[in-house]
Amino acid sequence: MIAVGRDGAVDLGGEVASLRATLPRVTYRVAGRPAALAPTRLDGPPDGPWTAEDAHLRITLAARPAAAPGVDGTVLRLSVTVVGDRPVRLDDATLLATGGPGGLRLGAGPASWSLYRNGWNSWSNARAFTFDEADGDPWLFAIADTTLDPETPRRREPGRFRSELVTALADREGSGGLVLGFVGGARCLSVVDVAAEVPGGALPHDDPGPGRLVELSATCRFDGTTVDPGATTTTEDLLVADGPDPVGLLEGWAAALGAAQSARVPARPPHGWCSWYYHYAKVTEADVRRALAAADGVAADVPLGYVMVDDGHQQAIGDWLATNHKFPSGMAALAADIRATGRDAGIWIAPFLVDPDSDVARAHPDWLLRDEAGEPVTALWNQIWNLRKRQQVLDCTRPDVVAHLEEVARTLARDWGYRVLKLDFCFAAALPGVRHDPGRTRAQALRAGLDAVRRGAGDDAVLIGCGLPLGPAVGVVDAMRIGTDVAPAWGGKVTRWAFSDQGGISTRIAMRNTLTRAFLHGHLWSNDPDCVMVRTDRTRLTEAEVRFLVAAVGLTDGMVVSSDRLDKVPPERLDLLRLCHELSGGRCRVVDLFAGPEPETVVSVKADEVLWGRFHWGDAPTAVSVDLDGPHWDGLGLARPTQVVEAFTGATLPVDGTRVDLGVLDPHDVRVLRLPR
């Protein structure tokens, strides 16, 4: 329910949660001078729309009931019209801002809340926090460069959180939750800020009292785009909904976003083989042909719908149609040979990056995104590509750059025959800079580049996003990486410190995101949790960690992709790869998403069985049992079993009432119970 109070502020009320005194605000610049329209009241009829105005802008807030399945809430939209006679540069438009005592009613207050914080792109951290925790940006530049939006930094202060695109609050005492998520991402990048004072916290505040909300705001970033006199622009829509099931609220938001942007969701996730995690940049044509032979031999019954040549085929970053000496037959001939086996051919590119020494950068310096000083914007440093120089970025608001991207994709997909394209490091196109078209936001620039690739590749091509901000990609990509890179190692304490436990190359962090972003799957795209490593050579993963990887990927029903030398994988490990495929195909729910930073319980509902996964994240052997009880069990419609079968061992385990003793689990191990329907 939404209404305007006597004070002219908007109130959002629900059965579980309510927001009071929520007011929009817009920051902007006129002739270089910063200004803000921050009304203390809105005018309009009780059911809206509501307006406020100053000498330069008029804002209009409109509301409508949410149409997402299973979600009872309100969708807000803010329109901004330039009413003065001079152009305005829009910075931020906040649709909802509240705080102080009574700003948000949910359960017993912040001391009992958990907050879901979503990161900016594919590799960014996503997990639940409690309000006595602090969340800050990683300190290592290599992680910061590739996981953070430089325009939305976070501060390491207890109780202060910034979530990209969506957040949800859950009352850990069971009263329900609240979701605030933008139902659109192709127009603006967006953030939700939440701050609260809890006992032991250290937030600056005007005496809000312990356990009270300090700030809650939801903001679209317009990035200083120019809006001419008389023109109107709108924010992305914002869904505000409450209910008894916080995980269901996130699922409902994802369904609403997918519907709003016409998400491309394959009937089944694409499965295949990728060269990167065994051969890395040293991959050769011979390596790929060996993989093809293994796929037709020892692994003939393992579903490998495509074979992908990852990073290492190109002459330079940006010169995607110039092949290096390691592929003497040429990429078109290799694609034809892959397709002759009945599989699709896949290829890796980083479409919006260019190496300073590439032919593209040298021939077209005007194509580069530049900063305020006129210098090329750089995205990252990768010593594999160029030991001395950082990678530069294409300006995707230029028509000639768009034409170039479209032609590259057309050549790769239609002329050469690579129908699966992995698009990597895509965040580069959304970095801050001075663009050819000053009227486009960073999200619109990125979307223009993605749309160009889609047009060139064709509607039937499979596009896999990677290193990509989530919102602008919905409706373009068929699959999306939702975590960092896996590695042939779990990732110990030193790795956690170096990566600030947020990114880098780490199987542990990758699998955490696999669970914490599982609700995106099937609504926005097919989730890509990264490759399943089952090999015994060139790896430090234990058998338990391999099982963990297999279970996390299988139970969440994401893409199953191998990157091993399949001709060297022992038969019992190939069985694990087959089991990963066997476990997939269900409707997944991470039931304890809000219980802590690392979810432990995943339930996957299939046509003939329910799979119950219990993950052990600890670094020491631990006796573990599960209780087949609670609201998540009640929704499965299953009879109480007297015994269950464990998927990895085939062992039959007795059920004592509702409890199953799983024995002692090794560090980073898992058990998966099969429950017949």
Describe this structure in words.
It is a single chain. With 677 residues, the chain is α+β, with helices and mostly antiparallel strands. It has a domain of 213 residues. 20% of the residues lie in helices and 32% in strands. The chain is built from 14 helices and 40 strands. Helix 11 packs parallel to helix 12 and helix 12 runs parallel beside helix 13. The two termini are 39 Å apart.
Taken from the alpha-carbon principal axes, the silhouette is globular
Proportion of residues in helical segments: 10-25%
Specify the structural class: alpha+beta
User: How many individual helices?
Assistant: 14
GO molecular function, one term: alpha-galactosidase activity
InterPro entries: Aldolase_TIM (IPR013785), Alpha-glycosidase_related (IPR050985), GH (IPR017853), Glyco_hydro_36 (IPR002252)
Pfam families: Melibiase
Keywords: Glycosidase, Hydrolase
Task: Describe the structure concisely.
The chain has 677 residues and is α+β, with helices and mostly antiparallel strands. The chain has 14 helices and 40 strands.
Which tags fit this structure?
9-stranded antiparallel beta sheet, 14 helices, 677 residues, 8-stranded parallel beta sheet, alpha+beta
Mind sketching the topology for me?
Elements lengths: L1 E3 L5 E4 L3 E6 L2 E6 L2 E5 L12 E4 L3 E9 L6 E11 L5 E11 L5 E3 L6 E5 L9 E4 L10 H7 L12 E5 L1 E6 L4 E7 L6 E9 L14 E16 L4 E3 L3 E6 L2 H15 L11 E3 L1 H4 L5 H12 L9 E4 L4 E3 L2 E5 L7 H9 L4 E6 L3 E2 L4 H5 L14 E3 L10 E3 L5 H17 L2 E6 L18 H16 L4 E4 L4 H4 L5 E3 L11 H6 L8 H10 L9 E3 L14 H13 L5 E2 L8 H13 L3 E4 L10 E5 L3 E8 L5 E6 L3 H4 L8 E4 L5 E3 L4 E7 L3 E8 L1
Parallel strand pairs: 20-21, 20-32, 21-24, 24-28, 28-29, 29-30, 30-31
Antiparallel strand pairs: 1-2, 2-3, 3-10, 4-5, 4-9, 6-7, 7-8, 8-18, 8-19, 9-17, 11-12, 11-14, 13-16, 14-15, 15-19, 16-17, 22-23, 25-27, 26-27, 33-34, 34-35, 35-40, 36-39, 37-38, 37-40
Helix pairs in contact: 7-8, 11-12, 12-13
Organism: Iamia majanohamensis
Keywords: Glycosidase, Hydrolase
GO molecular function: alpha-galactosidase activity
